[in-house]
Design a protein that fits this description.
The protein is mostly helical and about 400 residues long. Helix content is about 85%, strand content about 0%.
Length: about 400
C-alpha cells in the first residue's frame, strides 16, 4: 500500500482505537469500587495521587520513548500495561495492591498520552493535511465522549450486578485494542537528534524542554489549560462518590455522567465553528470562566450533577482548541515528548489538588469542597482573562 494511503488510514484507524480506548466500563465505578472495598475519601485521594506522582515522573521519559522508538511501539506498550493494571485492580483487597495497580495504570496512560496525538498529527503532517487537525481533533473528542457515554451506561449497569463482571469485560476490550494497535503505520519523521542510547534520551528531553521554555505564550497556554482539565477530572471522580453517598444507583450515576459525555461530544465536534466566532484566545478566556461558575453552582444547588454537564461541555471545547494550538507550535521530532510534558503539568496539579479535595471532602463534605474549588477557579480564570487581554497589546 502506498505510504500516503497508510497515513490516511492511520487517521481512520485512530477513530476505532479511540473508541475502544474510551469505551471504559471502569472509569465510572473505580472510585465507588474503592469505597466498596473500604477505602476512605482520603485514601482514594492518595491512590489518585500515586497515579499522578507516577505520571509526573514518567510522562516525559515515556514521551521520549515514543519519539525515539516510535509512536506505534509506545501505543502497544500502553495497551498492554492497561490490561495488566485492570487485572491487578480487580484482584486487590488492600491499599498497597491498589497502589500498585494505580502505578501500572499511570504507565499505561503515560505511554499513550504523547504518542496518540503525535501519531495522528504527524500522519497528517507527512501528507500535508495538518490544517485538518482541528476538525479531526473535534471528531476524536466526539468519539471519545460518545465511547465514554456508552461506557458509563454499560459500566453502571454491569457494576450493579457485579464489579468483577465490569472489570472482566474491560480486560477483554483492552486485549482487543492491544492487538489492534499493531495495525498502525509509523509516520516517517526526520530527527535532528541522531544520538541514540541514554545520552540521546537526555538530549531529547533537554531540547524539548527548551522548545517550550523559549515560547512564553505556549507555556502559559499549557499551564492554564492543564489546570482547567485537572479541575474537570477531579470533580468528575468525586462527583461519583457524592452521588453514591446520596443514594444514587451505579446505573443512574453512569447515566448522568453519560449525559455530560454527550454534551462534551457535541461541543467538542463543533469546536472549530466556536473558534471562528470566539477566536482561540476567546475560548481560553471565556470557557474556563463558564467552568468556574458552573462549579460554584454545584456547591450551592441540590442538582449538582446538572452543572457538571456544563463543565464537561466547556472542558471539551478547551481541550480541542488547546490540542490544535500546541501541535501547531511544536516540531515533529519533539512532539510526543512535549505533549507528555503537557500531561506532566496536569499530573503535577493532580498530585496536590486531588488528595486535598478528598481531605476537604472528608472534613467538610463534597458540596462545600466543590464550592471552594469553584471560587478558586473563578479567581484564576479572572486573572487569566486579564493576562490574555493584555497580551493583545
Amino acid at each position: 500500500m502506498h505510504y500516503y494511503q497508510k497515513m490516511e488510514k492511520n487517521v481512520g484507524k485512530n477513530y476505532i482505537f479511540t473508541f475502544l480506548s474510551n469505551f471504559n466500563l471502569t472509569s465510572v465505578i473505580w472510585v465507588i469500587f474503592l469505597a466498596y472495598k473500604g477505602m476512605s475519601l482520603t485514601e482514594i485521594g492518595l491512590l489518585e495521587g500515586i497515579f499522578h506522582v507516577t505520571s509526573f515522573f514518567m510522562e516525559v521519559p515515556t514521551g521520549a520513548v515514543a519519539d525515539i522508538f516510535g509512536r506505534k511501539t509506545s501505543r502497544i506498550l500502553g495497551k498492554l500495561t492497561g490490561v495488566i493494571s485492570n487485572i491487578i485492580f480487580i484482584a486487590s483487597n488492600n491499599f498497597w495492591l491498589f497502589a500498585l495497580s494505580m502505578f501500572v495504570t499511570a504507565l499505561s496512560y503515560n505511554l499513550e498520552s504523547g504518542a496518540g496525538q503525535a501519531l495522528v498529527y504527524d500522519s497528517l503532517l507527512s501528507i500535508s493535511k495538518e490544517k485538518k487537525y482541528l476538525v479531526i481533533s473535534g471528531r476524536i473528542e466526539f468519539i471519545t465522549q460518545t465511547a465514554m457515554f456508552l461506557g458509563y451506561i454499560a459500566g453502571g449497569y454491569f457494576a450493579g450486578k457485579s464489579f468483577e463482571t465490569a472489570y472482566i469485560i474491560a480486560i477483554i476490550i483492552g486485549v482487543v485494542n492491544f492487538l489492534y494497535a499493531f495495525s498502525f503505520t509509523e509516520p516517517e519523521i526526520e530527527y535532528k537528534n541522531e544520538i541514540k542510547g541514554l545520552k540521546g534520551f537526555f538530549i531529547q528531553n533537554r531540547d524539548s524542554f527548551n522548545e517550550i521554555k523559549k515560547n512564553k505564550k505556549l507555556l502559559f497556554v499549557i499551564m492554564f489549560s492543564e489546570f482547567a482539565s485537572m479541575v474537570c477530572t477531579t470533580v468528575f471522580f468525586y462527583l461519583q462518590n457524592y452521588m453514591y453517598s446520596e443514594g444514587f444507583t451505579t446505573y443512574k450515576i453512569g447515566l448522568i455522567l453519560a449525559l455530560a459525555g454527550v454534551a462534551g461530544a457535541v461541543f467538542g465536534l463543533v469546536t472549530h465553528k466556536i473558534e471562528k466566532v470566539l477566536s482561540e484566545k476567546g475560548i481560553l478566556m471565556l470557557l474556563p470562566l463558564i467552568m468556574a461558575i458552573s462549579l460554584i453552582f454545584m456547591g450551592i444547588s441540590e442538582f449538582s450533577y446538572i452543572f457538571f454537564i456544563f463543565i464537561s461541555a466547556a472542558e471539551s471545547v478547551i481541550f480541542v482548541a488547546y490540542s490544535d494550538y500546541v501541535n501547531r507550535n511544536i516540531p515533529s521530532d519533539k512532539r510526543a515528548t512535549i505533549l507528555s510534558m503537557c500531561s506532566m503539568v496536569f499530573s503535577m496539579y493532580m498530585i496536590f489538588i486531588f488528595p486535598l479535595v478528598g481531605k476537604l471532602g472528608d472534613i467538610y463534605g463534597l458540596k462545600l469542597t466543590f464550592l471552594l474549588l469553584g471560587i478558586g477557579l473563578f479567581i484564576l480564570s479572572s486573572i487569566n482573562i486579564v493576562i490574555l487581554f493584555k497580551s493583545k497589546k
